[in-house]
Amino acid sequence: MTTTYARGVGLLTAIVAVAMSLYHMWTTAFGPPEAVFFRGTHLIFAFALVFLTQPLRQRRTPGIEDCILLLLAIGSVGWLFFDYQRIVFRIIYIDAPEPADWFWGWTCVLLVMEATRRVIGWALPATALVFLVLALTVLDVELPVLLDQLYLTTEGIFGSTLGVSAGFVVVFVLFGAFMERSGVGRLFMDFALALTGRAVGGPGKVAVISSSLFGSVSGSAVANVMVTGQVTIPLMKRTGFRPQFAAAVEAVASTGGQIMPPIMGAAAFVMAEFLQVQYLEVITWALLPALLFYVAAFGAVHFEAKRTGLRGLSGEEVPKLGRVLGESGHLFIPIFIILAGLFLGYSAPLSALAGTLACFPVAALRANSRETVTLHNVWAALVEGARGALGVAMACACAGIVIGVITISGLGIIFTQFVLAAAQNSLILALVLTMAAGIILGMGMPTTPAYIVMVALLVPAVIKLGVVEPAAHLFAFYFAILSAITPPVALAVFAAAGLAKSDLWQSGLAAVKMGAAGFIVPFMFVYSPSLLLIGDWIDILHASLTATAGCLLLAAGLHGYLIARATWLERALSIAAALTLIKPGWLTDLIGIGLAGLVVAMQLATRRREAAAAAP
Fold first, then answer.
1. What's the pLDDT score for residue 218?
2. CA atoms of 30 and 49, how far apart (whole Å)
3. What distance in Å separates the CA atoms of residue 151 and residue 100, rounded to the nearest whole number?
4. Which residues have a Cβ under 8 Å from the Cβ of 313 and sit 6 or more positions away?
5. pLDDT for position 354
6. How far apart are CA 546 and CA 350, in angstroms?
7. In the chain, which stretches have pLDDT less than 50?
8. Structure pTM?
9. Helix axes 184-196, 202-218, angle to 10 degrees
10. CA separation for the pair 442, 258 (Å, rounded)
C-alpha cells in the first residue's frame, strides 16, 4: 500500500509539474490572462508542488496534514477567482472585507510563509513575519487595510515580484532544464577543456569557463557547483591544486553565473521590471562587470598555478577544439536563438521559449547528440523545469508580503531617511551599508528576495545621493549574489567544499580572495557608469582597459605571482596599482600605471636573478 501510494504521489507530482511547465509555455506564446488569474494560477501550481514534494514530517510522501494544507492553499487562491467580479469592483481600503476574505486572506498569507519555509528555509518567512508584526504594532497599520494590501490587490502577494516569477523565471528555468537534458552540459565542459585544458593550471581554467557558461544558463550557484563541480574539482585536485583552492575556484566561478549574460539569475528579470526597461538593457549593463569578475577569477587560477608550479593536462586528456565544435557545436544554437530574439526586439520570455523549443530539434541534427532526443528526456525536462522554479516562485510570493508592508506603511521612506542620516550624506558610507545589508540578507535567503528587499529599503537612499538607477540596482544585485561565497554562510562554498572534502573556513577565505574583484567592481561602476557601457565610447573603452588591467593586478597581488614569485612589497604595490586602475579617472590611472611599471621592473629583476642562479 505504501509503495503504491508513493508511486501515485510521484506520478501526480510529475503530472502537476508538466502541467505547470506547459501552462507557462502556452501563456508565453499566446499571452497571459489578467494579472490575478495568471499569478494566482502560477502560485497554485507552486503550492501543489511544494506540499507534494516537501512533506511536513521527514518522510518521502505527504501526510494527511500536507493534503489539508494543499487544499487550503488552493482554496485561498481559488476564492479570488470565484469572487473575482466583486473583488475587482469593490473600493479598496474603503469597502470592508467580507468574512470569507478574512479567512482565505490570512490563510493565504500563512501558507505562503509555510511553503516558502519548506523550500528555502526560515530566513525569508521570519523576515515577512517581523514586517507583519511591525506593521500592526509600531507602524499602526489597521488589520483590514493590511489584508487589502496583501491579499485583495496586486500590491502584495500577487504583486509584480510574483508576476516576474510567473512571466519570466519559469520559462528561463525550463530553458536551462531543456539545455541540460539535450547534452549542453557536456558540451560546455568539453569546450572549456579544449580551450584551456593544456594551459598552466588548465583544470582550474576549465572550471572558470565551464561554470561561467553553465551558470549563465542555470542561474543558480549551488546547482552549478553540483553539476560542473563533480568533474572539475577532482580534476583540479588530481593535477595538484589544494582542495580548498579547488573548492574556491568552483564556488566563485559558479556564483558569477548569476551576473553573466545572456541569462543571468532570476533577480535580473525583477530588475528589468523595477526599472521598466527591456531585459536586453539589463544584460548590456551587466556585461562588462561580469567579464571583469571572470578575468580576475581566470587570473587568480593562472597566478596560483604559476606560483605553485602546476601544469596543465596532457594532450591525450584534452579534446580538440575543432572536433568539439564539429561534433557538438550545434548545441549552442538555442543560446544564439535567444540572443537573436532579444536583439530583434522580441520579449525575453518569448525569446527563451523559442530557444527552449529548439533544444531537442537541434540535438536531433547530429548522430552524437540524437540519443538525448527521447520522450523520457522531454518529460524529465518539463518536470525539472517546474520543480527548479519552486524556490523563486515561493520566494517572490513571500517577498510580496514584505513589499506590501513596506508600501502601505511608508517604511521604505522611513528607512531611506535613516540610511541618509546614518551615512551623513556620504555616498561611500551608504554604499558600505548597502553592501553589508546585501551580504547579510543573501546569507539567509536566495538572491531574488534579498535583492527585492534591498530595492525597497536601501536602493532609494543610494539613488538620492546621486547614483544612476542602473548602477544602484546592479550594486544591490551584486552583493545579494556575493553572499554565496562570503563566510560564515556561503552556500556555494559549502557545496564545493563538500565535493572537494576541504575545510569550510579555508575554502571560504580562498573564495573571498579569489572573488575579490567582485567586491570592488560594484563600487567602481557606481562612481563611473562607463563600466556599465553607459556614456561616451571613448570613456567606455578607457574604463574597460584600465579596469581589466586592474583586475589582473589584483589577482596577482592576492596570489603572489605576476612574472615571478612576488615579495610582500610587490604584492602590496600590485594591489595598490589594481585599486587605482579599477577606479575610473586619468589621475588614478597614471598612478596605477606607474605602480604597475615598478612592480614589473622588480619582478623582471627577480627573474633575472633566478635565471642566473639556475645557470650552470
1. 64
2. 25
3. 12
4. 193, 197, 198, 202, 203, 235, 239
5. 95
6. 37
7. 1
8. 0.84
9. 150
10. 13
